[in-house]
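REVIEWER CHECKLIST
Item 1: Sequence provided? yes
Item 2: Single chain? yes
Item 3: Sequence as submitted:
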Amino acid sequence: MLLAVLAAFADARGAYGLAFDALLGAIPFAAVSALVGFGEYLERREDALRGLQALLWTLALALLVLSCAARSPASRTDSLPALGASALVCCLAVLAIKVCVAAAPHLRRLALAQPAKP
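Item 4: Structure as written out by the authors:
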């Protein structure tokens, strides 16, 4: 997640090579996270949130790969391809949704908590 944010920051500064390297480094971490998330879902199938988290990791991974493919050195452009930028923005949106999904049970628990009576 941090590497994807770093890539977006590098894109904003015009350092497209650094952004490509950051995205390339983020792919293995996203792949492992997707596999671990899917494994956790298979162990506890009754927890739909785990399945959603695994699905979102898989979607983020696909968007990271798409963004890297659009920026690949084989394209030989010194500008940011529109597909690469769009895929990165969508990936960051998916990661933001993941944060909201992960925080939802904790926020719900806090909302249902009642203060202790003296």
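Item 5: Key structural point noted by reviewer: The mean pLDDT is 90.
Item 6: Recommendation: ____
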